[in-house]
Amino acid sequence: MKLLGLVAVIITGSLLLYASGDFPAWGDANSPANSNQQVSVRYIQDSYAKTKTPNEVTAVLADYRGFDTMFETVVIFVAGIAIIAILSFLGEPNKPRGGDIEEHPETPDLIIVQTCKLVIPIIQLFALYVVAHGHYSPGGGFQGGVMFGASLILWALACGLPAALKRLSEPRALVLSAIGIIIYAGWGFLCMLLGGNFLEYAFTDPLLPEGVEKAHSHGMLIVEIGVAFTVTAIMFVIYANLSSRGRLKGGL
Amino acid sequence: MIWQFDIIILLFLVVTALISLRLKDLLGASIVFGIYSFLICLLWAEMGAVDVAFTEAAVGAGVSTVIMIATVYNTKRRSKD
Amino acid sequence: MMLDHAMLANLIEDTVVPKINFWIYIILMMTGLYAMISKNNLIKKLIGMSIFQTAIILFYVSIGVKSGSGIPILGAETQREFHEVEHHNHEHDEHPEEFPDVYAYPTINPDDYANPLPHVLMLTAIVVGVSTLGLALAISQKIYHEYGSIEEDEILAQIKTRSDNDD
Q: Are residues C73 and C21 in the same domain?
């Protein structure tokens, strides 16, 4: 079985290596992917004039390819729900936890708790900054959301999972993640109500202060906030369920 | 695009991947997998893909390593191969 | 034969550098694939799956690289040029007799910026990859709870004895 797998892998690898002779050289500015006038060159040249967003990756992610981002958020949400569904039927564990990693000590360590109390507000502030400043610097909804979720995971690692669950309990986390998706899809429906197609931000121009291009920019900010809500909540839910085998007591 | 730097990081990447698959201690394998994620993040930052590097640093080297260690904590730590 | 330092560097740069990244990505992909097929331990299989996924994401992002270009974010200078043109056009709309001509927006040279499209697609791929990893780890915890081991051959032996006992 393993020999067959090795043979298959070697054949696939050698076919791919043979095909790599036809690839364009690394860093070539005239390769077909880089010089496509309708798609790549148009994104680079027209995105600032149409959307007033210096970060072209955010402009393409939230405006030109907004559908992909919405369904990606839904995928994260479904993964969180699926993990809760798989692990919630385990009941009390009948096999010993053979991990050989130390149990969490009952009293939290003083140095770790004090350091985390100093550091976690700064992490959360930076995460909110990354979400809001995603138009002008690298960042955006995902990165900020994951950082915020990681700050909650840090609190769970320092003081135990029940302490972190007091801050953001599981039902509230699920409601928060659903609100994130409702914000995203709701903004799309709002554009439909105002006369355009789904997620066509230009039609929210009557509601938002500056011109049509700034309507694109503000619409992108709102959907990024929706994405950040969902990603924060689901990252914490995934960690809480995986580390305590679904029972939400004890844990790493 | 500094090619000397790129070649060194790519060779480290292959070495790290092989080490992570050979270690019998699963906690060590998870941590070496975190090193692999950090090296990939460095490679992307050097190639000019800053958004992708930011996401990989947060997601791959942060959350992914932690949930893998959480699973090793709840199952066995030693593997037979 | 004077194969000195500079000549060796040039030789490497002309023949090896254009394609070496693709070779290494293919080696990584095949390592991940073989680990998924042949390893017994479930966690090692998942590490192999993750190596495979990140190698593919590396491949895509490296397509959009242009040597000599910067990051795909417009700088402050270019933004200021756009604002001046827009301000001038706004003045032209308000007072057409004082500002008779309409300026066009400055053209951006696409060779100065990296291609943003592969970056966008791979952001989605990374996040979907971590969701898949989380779900697979949850399933492996459930398998451990049910069968008491995460080695594939022990699990298959237990399934066989359980189905033999049931018949």
A: no
Do both C90 and C56 map to the same domain?
no
- Contact residues, C window 7-26, toward A, CB-based 8 Å cutoff: 17-23, 26
| Pair C119, C52 in one domain | yes
List of chain C residues whose C-beta atoms are within 8 Å of the C-beta of residue A242: 134, 137-138, 141
Half-sphere exposure at residue A147, Cβ-oriented, CA atoms within 13 angstroms: 22
Contact call for A95 and C144, based on CB within 8 A = yes
CA A251 to chain centre: 24
Q: Please choose, from the candidates B79, B81, B43, the residue with its C-alpha nearest in 3D space to the C-alpha of residue B61.
A: B43
CATH number, domain of C165, equals: 1.10.287.3510
Domain span at residue C88 reads 69-114
What does each of the 252 residues of chain A score in pLDDT, given as a tens digit?
A: 889 999 999 999 999 999 888 888 777 777 777 777 788 888 888 888 888 889 999 999 988 999 999 999 999 999 999 999 888 866 655 555 555 555 656 677 889 999 999 999 999 999 999 999 998 999 889 999 999 999 999 999 888 888 888 888 889 999 999 999 999 999 999 888 888 788 888 888 788 777 788 888 888 999 999 999 999 999 999 999 988 877 776 666
Does residue B71 sit at the C interface (CB-CB below 8 Å)?
yes
DSSP A106-130: SSPPHHHHHHHHHHHHHHHHHHHHH
